Amino acid sequence: MPNTRAQKLRALAAQDKRTADAAQKARLRSEDAVNALEDREARRDARAPVPERKF
Amino acid sequence: MPKHLIADAKAMLEAELPTLNDYQANEFRKAIEEKEVEAKAHADAFVQQRVAALLADRTEALKQLTEARDAYDELASEAKEGRISTADASSRLNQLTQRQLQSEERLARIAKQAEILAAVEEDPVAWADEQARRVPSTMPEWGF
What we know:
- The complex is a heterodimer of chains A (55) and B (144).
- Chain A has 55 residues and is mainly α.
- Chain A has one helix at residues 5-47.
- Chain A has one domain.
- Chain B has one domain (6-135).
- Helices cover 82% and strands 0% of the residues of chain B.
- Chain B is rod-shaped.
- In chain B, helix 1 packs antiparallel against helix 2, helix 2 packs antiparallel against helix 3 and helix 2 packs across helix 4 (124-134).
- By secondary structure, chain B is mostly helical.
- Chains A and B meet through helix 1 of A and helix 2 and helix 3 of B.
């Protein structure tokens, strides 16, 4: 068990890795969602009818 | 007055011990103990000050990191539901990544500092000697 000030800080710093891991997982979920959004928009744009020429 | 590192003074005591009488040896030991007490007090004050500053910095960095984590989840939700354009989503993703990396770097620096401070706590006399080696004017003065 950490019993000095610096040892306690070191133990807290070790715990922070879990928070960093959670943030990294959230980032990956977010990247996946943004990539999926881009794919959907690209497919939608590809399906959009070409406007008829008036002249 | 002569200046020596505490480690050097201890080495001198070891070397000269056979030539010293009891009184001289005790005076020598007492002088070393006094310098060690001073060094420990100095190291303790340093650690206390640095730990307090690093804890405050850690709180800020963690806040920044958890905010980025929550904002990632919010962005993912908006992107899945199509409530945001791809341009805005990409821009926000980049900003969040910057914030995440900044706070992670900050936390890594704090962790590194915590290791250094733990080493100071473990051997405050060695730390004091190291400081004196870097700044010779702070080297302790002795009566021998």
